[in-house]
Design brief:
The protein contains 6 helices and no strands. It is mostly helical. It has a single domain, classed as lambda repressor-like DNA-binding domains (434 Repressor (Amino-terminal Domain), Orthogonal Bundle). It is elongated and about 45 Å long.
Length: 94
């Protein structure tokens, strides 16, 4: 999700992968893996990307967090039930 969104933003601005990688001070191959979903972005990188692309931090962080949740639960049974329980617990703590 987040990788696709970053690629969409980058291509929409006609920025080459190597140019964005340089702005983030990272290797082009690493950024390519992140866009493909083979590696995860760090939160700090998402915040920097929000600045670079003048995007709402909340939107990008939400996509990033959703990706993290999906990766953490990949292959597990009872994911919908666990997510409902977690969300209910979270809402009760507010």
């Amino acid at each position: 999700m987040i990788g696709d969104r970053i690629r969409e933003l980058r291509e929409g601005e006609n920025i080459l992968l190597r140019q964005l990688a340089a702005q983030l001070d990272m290797d082009t191959a690493l950024l390519s893996k992140m866009e493909r979903g083979d590696r995860q972005f760090r939160k700090e990188e998402i915040l920097e990307l929000a600045k670079i692309f003048h995007q709402n931090e909340q939107e990008l962080l939400t996509l990033w967090l959703a990706d993290k949740i999906l990766k953490a639960t990949e292959g597990e049974a009872y994911i919908p039930e666990a997510l409902k329980l977690a969300l209910n617990t979270y809402q009760q703590s507010l």
